[in-house]
Amino acid sequence: MKSSATDCLLKLYDEQHGLEDYQSGVPRWCTGCGDNAILAAVQRLCRDEGLRPEKTVFVSGIGCSSRFPHYMKTYGFHGIHGRALPVAEGIKMVRPDLTVFVNTGDGDCCSIGAAHWIHAIRYNMNLTVFLHDNQIYGLTKKQASPTSPIGTKSNTTPRGSYLDALNPLTITLGVANASFVAQAVDWIPESLFDIVKAAYHHQGLSFVRILQRCPEWLPKSLDPWMQDPDRIQLLHHENALHLSPGLAKVYKNHLVHDPMDMNRAREISGHEDIIPVGILYQNREIPRYEETRQTGVLRTTETVRKGFEAELDKYSV
User: Fold this and answer.
1) Cα 180 from Cα 172, distance rounded (Å)
2) Is 282 within 8 Å of 203 (Cβ atoms)?
3) Which CATH number describes the domain made up of 18-287?
4) How far apart are CA 116 and CA 94, in angstroms?
5) What are the b/e assignments for 266-285, b being 16+ CB within 10 Å?
6) Is 304 exposed, middle or buried (0-12, 13-18, 19+ CB in 10 A)?
7) DSSP 286
8) SS3 string of 52-74?
9) Alpha carbon distance 224, 268 (integer Å)
10) Mean pLDDT, rounded, for 63-67
11) Which of 73, 74, 182, 216 is deepest in the core (most CB within 10 A)?
12) Spatial distance between the Cα atoms of 146 and 106, rounded to a whole number of angstroms
């Protein structure tokens, strides 16, 4: 006996997914790489939020972090260097019903993709963007990136890098229409997941910089902050993240920060000796670009086919 349409819809609504429904293949990142922690947090988010794999898309550019779509059993687009954001924006414009994530690295986003990064913030489309920042080019074997600290010795700067590192937080906070800016670190899984979850629920472009370890090329660069909990400053507020007793016991450097205070967010994000972890800024009132441009009509398979045929008909073979 065939199920009715109503039965099928109810089954789809009640469908539950486990972690294995989002896991695809064995990650090929190095042991101890922060990308593994980020992947675990995102897969847990997908499970806990019940995201349908066929309605979820992960987009990336080029780099170690950009292997991410290969390890998610969802739709994915592994793009070219620096172009993850415009691809994700295109997907969201034509399929606003999809949940779209972007995984990009400090070289992918902040160097060749810098212009796309700036304008993606300005457009404020409903995307969740994770900047995996290990402060080095990892996939191409240890070249200085825009976020490499001054003095970093690499294959391109053997005597040490000469320029101060670019700060992705202060830059993002300086762009018109920034609506959600946060920072996490890969070695505090509880706060990493809380920030990932808050970013997903924000309606607009969520920009999360995640400081992550690179055990291959910069194995000790983040040790001073990992080994001294007082150099991690946990941000909390009644309208943002709440601290669990266990986390507060280990990390005693807390700061009550109102994420609506842009000036204070810019000040906090400029700290160099202390790493702020939490939501720096959130404004839920900023309009989203796809809302201002969207007709409200999804592009059906037939619409897409007709569009392709119309383009192909312009040429003769």
Assistant:
1) 9
2) no
3) 3.40.50.970
4) 19
5) bebbeeeeebbbbbbbbbee
6) exposed
7) S
8) CHHHEEEEECCCCHHHHHHHECC
9) 19
10) 95
11) 182
12) 7
Phi, psi of 128 (to 5 degrees): -110, 115
Separation of CA 177 from chain center = 17
Strand partners, 59: 77, 102
pLDDT tens digits along 83-134: 999 999 999 998 999 999 999 999 999 999 999 999 999 999 999 999 999 9
DSSP letters along 133-158, please?
E-SSBTTTTSB--TTPPTT---SS-T
Locus of tokens 């995640």: 210
What one-letter code names the amino acid at 169? Answer: L
**Residue 304 has what pLDDT?**
78
**pLDDT per position as a tens digit, 150-191:** 999 999 999 999 999 999 999 999 999 999 999 999 999 999
- Please report, as a single letter, which amino acid is at residue 294: Q
Q: Which amino acid is at 121?
A: I
- pLDDT tens-digit profile of 267-303? 999 998 999 999 999 999 999 999 888 655 666 778 7
- Dihedral of alpha carbons 182, 218, 108, 163, sign: positive
Query: Residue 1: what pLDDT?
Result: 44
Whole-angstrom Cα Rg for the chain: 21
Q: Which residue has the tokens 């060749």?
A: 112
- Token pair for 286: 């900023």
The SS3 call for residue 253 is coil
Tell me phi and psi for residue 2, to 5 degrees.
-80, 145
**Sole residue written with tokens 């409200």:** 296
